[in-house]
Amino acid sequence: MATLEALLESVTATGTIPGLSLATLRKGTQATEHCFGIRGSHDRSPVDAQTVFEAASPTKPLVSFMALQLAEEGLLGLDLPLSDICGEYVPDDARALQITALHVLTHTSGLPNIVRADAPLKTYFAPGERFSYGSSAFAWLQRAMQTVTHCSLETLARERVFEPLGMHHSSLEWQQRFVANHAQGHEWEGEPVPKRRLDTAQASWSLLTTASDYLRFVQSVLNAEGLTSHMYARWFSPAVQVRQGDNAEDLLGTNPPDANVAWGLGWGLKPSQQSFFHWGHNPGFRAYVVGNRTTRDAVVWFANSARGLRLAHSVLPETVPGEHPSVQWLQIGRL
């Protein structure tokens, strides 16, 4: 670990990655946190344990956890079409009426990852047919969760996750208390990214948190807390093999499956090692989370740089021993 710390000190000192927050868990109980570099171009103060980063897509496992709780409570039917719960989301698309919460959680909805000019909001294949990473579908799931509970997603997260786990520096919405200590994102050559301050939660990407806070969630996951044993097992049962493709999206079905990586109900899975993962990609921010259910080791890191995922080649071997096929699947380059 000393060699890794020296590397991270060097990477942040040179400005390759301005700032980094990293937390590790050993054997389920030994938690440590390490902070490196600065908060950003807006504030050159050192990153510390309270510096809030944009987590990006690691928002999804947290939302998935709450969705599974609602399913256990009989409020959210995982196999019930979302349109039956909260109305249409995709206009003039008959296949979209078949999309369920289960399709969203397993990225088999057929909807695009991000709605854009070359990928408008529509189904590109029948729901359940195959994997294609689809962030856009989580907005529909969010609407369904809010409909059945009559609560905002932020309220659900605060009551079901943040407060019970002591995640005091976490929110799905921008909070005034984050003004004094937050990270700013930077693109590949260090260009600062204007800070977004959302006043409405987004189920696929809006989590603001610290590495130690998110590690508390991961520790709870490893302890199988908050769900029945049946639902917990279902959470981590491979539901579909992922497919290769840019940003894990394969709308046209032209890419081959990846035999070493699967997807459960909200987490990426490496079944041969009983491990789970998720990565995050917001403008100027990158995040990575890995946990091993057998060894009970885990790591979380947040970087305020587009280069942040490239730390995987150095961080993972030192923190969560074993093979990490997700790195190859995501085509993560080296620093």
State the gist of this model.
With 335 residues, the chain is α+β, with helices and mostly antiparallel strands.
Molecular structure report:
There is one protein chain. The protein has helices at 2-13, 59-72, 82-86, 101-105, 137-149, 153-165, 211-222, 229-235, 312-319, 325-329; strands at 19-26, 30-40, 43-46, 53-54, 208-209, 240-243, 257-263, 268-270, 275-282, 285-292, 298-303. It is of the alpha+beta class and 335 residues long. The chain has one domain (2-329): Beta-lactamase (3-Layer(aba) Sandwich), CATH 3.40.710.10. The strands form two sheets. The protein has a nine-stranded antiparallel β-sheet with strand order 3-2-1-11-10-9-8-7-6, sandwiched between helices. A hairpin with a 2-residue loop joins strand 9 (275-282) and strand 10 (285-292). The longest helix has 14 residues, at 59-72. It is globular, with a radius of gyration of 19 Å. The model has no long low-confidence stretch (mean pLDDT 97).
Features:
single chain, alpha+beta, 335 residues, Serine hydrolase, Beta-lactam-related, Beta-lactam/transpept-like, two-stranded antiparallel ribbon, 9-stranded antiparallel β-sheet, hydrolase activity
* Gap from first CA to last CA: 18 Å
Radius of gyration: 19 Å
Which band does the percent of strand residues land in?
A: 15-25%
Q: At the fourth CATH level, what is the homologous superfamily?
A: DD-peptidase/beta-lactamase superfamily
Strand line-up in the sheet with most strands: 3-2-1-11-10-9-8-7-6
Instruction: Give the overall pLDDT as a whole number.
Output: 97
Question: Under CATH, the topology is which?
Answer: Beta-lactamase
- Write down the oligomeric state: single chain
Give the count of helical stretches: 10
Query: Rough shape?
Result: globular
The CATH architecture classification is 3-Layer(aba) Sandwich
CATH class: Alpha Beta
Question: H/E order of the elements?
Answer: HEEEEHHHHHEHHEEEEEEHH
Number of strands: 11
Largest pleated sheet: 9 strands, antiparallel
Helical content stands at: 25-40%
